[in-house]
GNAT family N-acetyltransferase (Sphaerisporangium rufum), 182 residues
Amino acid sequence: MTITFRRLTEADFPLLARWLAEPHVARWWHHETSAEAVRRDFGPAARGEEPSEDLLVLLDGVPAGLVQRSRYADYPEYERELAPIVAVPAGAMSIDYLIGEPGMTGRGLGPRMIAEVIALTWADHPAASCVIVPVVAANRASWRALEKAGLRRAGEGNLEPDNPIDDRWHYVYRVDRPGRGR
């Protein structure tokens, strides 16, 4: 099965709203699913008005998930929140991800799409030094997918969770650009 990526467009918003409402996604993303909320929160990136990138994950051409990719330098508030836990070097990037289709979870797609979007990041962003990903410690499936994709735990500490029902305790994972190292 081949994984490809393309920029999320406004035509994808109904699909994204459906995914955000799926219990396995809603538990961790905790996002409003109304058309207005999806348009408000994902529209600026889709239109190129915001520096983050929302990438639709396609499995053999069929939409399967979403990856958000951003530079910490473009979101200094997140960089400041993370800095007490791990060093955030110049060029550091982050990703967030979801598998939208329930039938595609638990099949190894998560680690594959993470590894492939990181490889794509090295090609798309020559100044990217590393990818640093915080994940709430209770989300074992997410941090195990990061480990299987080759990221290593670089720190742990308190960060604001996406879902207010979660504890603030997070694990922070990191992978460096090949050949660059720490």
Summary: The radius of gyration is 15 Å.
